[in-house]
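Subject: sequence -> C-alpha cells, single chain

Hey, anyone have a minute? Need the predicted structure for the following. Not urgent.
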Amino acid sequence: MIFFGICGSTYGMFEETYGLIPVSVCIAIAMGYDAIVGLSMVGLGVGIEFASATTNPFTVGIAQTIGQLPLFSGIAYRVVIFIAMEGVAIWWTTRYAEKIKRDPRKSMVKDINFSALQFSQEEMERAKFGIREKIVFSTFFQGP
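Reply:
Had a minute. Here:
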C-alpha cells in the first residue's frame, strides 16, 4: 500500500492500477482473506493518496497553477496529510483483514461466489515462474 500510495501521491498513478486489482484480489483470497482486502491493498492505497497528493501534477500542479500559487508550495503540509491518510488506510485494511481472517463470516462480501478467482496451494506451487514471467514482473518495477 505504501508503494501505491507514493506513486499516487507523487506522479499521479491511478488508472495504471486497474489491471493489478484482480491480481491482488486473487492473492488476498488465496491467503484466506476476502476480495475487499485485495481491492484495498491496491485501490485504497493509490486512491486515498491520489486525493492527498504531495506533488501530483494532475491535482496539485494544475490547482496551484490556476490559483496562481508557487508550484508545489505547501509541500510540508501535504506530506503530513499523506502520512496521516496512508496510516489510516493501512490501519483500516489491516484491521479488516484480521477480522476476516479470524471469522470469514464477517466479510462484507461473504455471499458472493469468488470460486473463479480461487486456486489451491498445490496450484500455486505448480505455477511456473519462468523467464517470461520474470520479464513481465521486472517491467512493473521499472516505473514510468
